[in-house]
Each structure stands twice: as structure tokens, then as C-alpha cells.
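Posting this for the archive.
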Amino acid sequence: MAVNGERREQDDIRSLVSNYYRSFRSPSFQTVCRYYIPTSGVVSYLALSVNVMNPNWISSAAYKRSTTDFLLFGAIVGSGTYLYNRRVLTQAPTLNRVLYSGVGSVLFSFGSVLAWAIMRTYVSRSNALCTAVGLVLGSFFLGTCGHFLAFVDARTACDNTEDHAE
């Protein structure tokens, strides 16, 4: 009886590990641009939210500015790549796709930094609370923008199938 329970447990662990590795996509230029760079941008964006809301999380003053710049750059590149690969921009000329995704990612990132900086003045001086508020706001911004882009992409797909002879 114990042997069957151990085998089931081992099979469950193998299944869990197998599913975990299947969730990773094989590295190709397309998956790097469509999956890995935007994912690293999300990580940079959330780390940036913590960095802005809780500036004390980096102990050395010498690294504070370079860390913020690095995280901001990662967030801009990640969100720009994500926007560039959205369905709504596929019909645009390449130069316009680059411009639209670049401007959108810069506005999103700097707008978020501004919102976090303003929220920082209204939240108590508790570092833990500031960190939590930063992560919640960052997740909210990411989720809301993701849902908005999915809505726009869905409308774009509908608009492409309809004849707009007005």
C-alpha cells in the first residue's frame, strides 16, 4: 500500500516538473522578442515600482541612480517590445510600429513613475507598506493596460472583417 502511495507521489512530482519545463518556450528570435523580452520588462517594471516607492531597498547610494536607470530601461524595452508585437500594430509600417511602441512604452513607464512618486507622498513612511502599494499599483497598471490592449486587438480583428464603406 505504501509503495503505491510513493509511486503516485513520484508521478505527481514528475508531472509537476514536466509541466513546469513545458511552460518554457524554446528560444528562437520570435519567442525572445514576443515572450522573453516582455517578460523581463514586467520584472523590471515591478522592481522599478519597489525602487520608486521604497528607495531604501538599495543600501548603497552609489548604486541607486544606476539601478533605477537600469530598471527603467528594462521596463521601457520590455513594454515597447510587447506593444510592437500586438495585433493592432501589425498593419502599420515598420517605422510607425517602432515609433508607436516606443512612445507608448515611454509614456507608460514615466507615467507610472510619476504616479508612484505622487503616491509615495501620501502613503505612510512604512517601507513595507510603500513596497506593497508599489507592487499593487504596478500590477494594477500592467493588468489594466493588458486588458485594454486585448480589447483593442479584439476590436481590430472585428474591424478587419467588416466592410466600412460609409
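Confidence is low (pLDDT under 50) at residues 161-166. The CA atoms of residues 33 and 121 lie 37 Å apart.
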